[in-house]
Amino acid sequence: MLVSSGGGWVSPQQALFASQQAAAIAAAQKREAALAKAVSTGRTLWQLAQDAEKEADLRLASRLYQRLALMRPKTTFNGEAQGRLRDIQGRAAEKLQTLDDELANLKLPKSDPTGLALAKIDAVAVASTFELLDALALEYAGVVTVEDKINDKIKRLKKDAKFAEILQEPTAAELWKLGQEYEEKGEPCCALLVYQQGADLAPAPSARLARERLKELQANKHVVAAAERCQLLQRCHETYRKAQVAIEANPDRARQYLREIIESAPTDTKIYQDARMQIAAL
Questions:
Q1: Tens-digit pLDDT profile for residues 160-205
Q2: pLDDT for 82-140, tens place per residue?
Q3: Angle between the N-to-C axes of helices 123-139 and 147-159, in degrees from 0 to 180, rounded to the nearest 10
């Protein structure tokens, strides 16, 4: 059977072929347009990523490179972006490994390569190296695939007993000093609470002192009771501050906070009386 086509006659097979050919041409033109758009977009993103990297904004650069690497349809920018991502990741890994090696050398110095002699670690050098690690984490904050690796490594290193003893000692020492000052002022309940915080910083030397003194204070039931009362009042004051913030925006929530204080605070305290007055005014 023949069909008419613009005044001529063609077979159904020819008509089908012509239709398929037209569809193929249209599809090709669409792909070419999409590719041209991708190339244009890719060129813009590539320039933005390059500028960000030059300005040391590795977070933005890495995200733009990642977007380019995953862009479809593929262009030459896909491979180039993947390469830049690998370079950024490689530099970060190299810096991290260098600092890791420095800490390993400090942990097992040449004078005691086995660690069995318990040679004293250079505390200043350890603290300085961890400061560099923190700076590295800040430099690569938000950088895809890199940030988590750096932070995980730092967390593991800080948990090492030899390093933890050094890193946590400054805070532990401050807490020990504060606890001693409270005791000198005749406020053992406050000292007990401070020593609790200090004891948690083991294995720092001052944390061990705090733990021993904490045990002694906990043996005195009057000090323990006073410390518990002090903690309760601290929580009540914090809840009261929340109630003050919520009064205008959410009065019901404010009432809930105030009721919590009334139900838990000792009746002979000012915070109890303030909560009662405030809830009556709502």
A1: 988 999 999 999 999 999 999 999 999 999 999 999 999 999 999 9
A2: 999 999 999 999 999 999 999 999 886 555 544 444 447 888 999 999 999 999 999 99
A3: 160
**CA–CA–CA angle 93, 97, 100 (5° rounding):** 140
Given pLDDT bands bounded at 50, 70 and 90, which one contains residue 231?
A: very high
Residue 186 Rama label (left phi>0; alpha psi -120 to 50; beta): left
Structure-token match 């109890």, residue found: 272
For 268-275, what is the mean pLDDT? Answer: 95
Those residues whose C-beta lies under 8 Å from the C-beta of residue 121, and which sit 6 or more positions away, are 106, 107, 109, 162, 166
Q: What letter does residue 56 receive in the DSSP assignment?
A: T
Nearest by Cα to 258 from 266, 268, 241: 241
Evaluate the omega torsion of the peptide bond into residue 170 and state whether it is cis, within 30 degrees of 0: no
The pTM assigned to this predicted structure is 0.66
Token readout for 68 is: 């380019």
The DSSP line for 167-226 is: HSHHHHHHHHHHHHHHHHTT-HHHHHHHHHHHHTTTTSHHHHHHHHHHHHHHT-HHHHHH
What residues have CB less than 8 Å from 271, skipping those under 6 apart? 233, 236, 237, 240, 261, 265
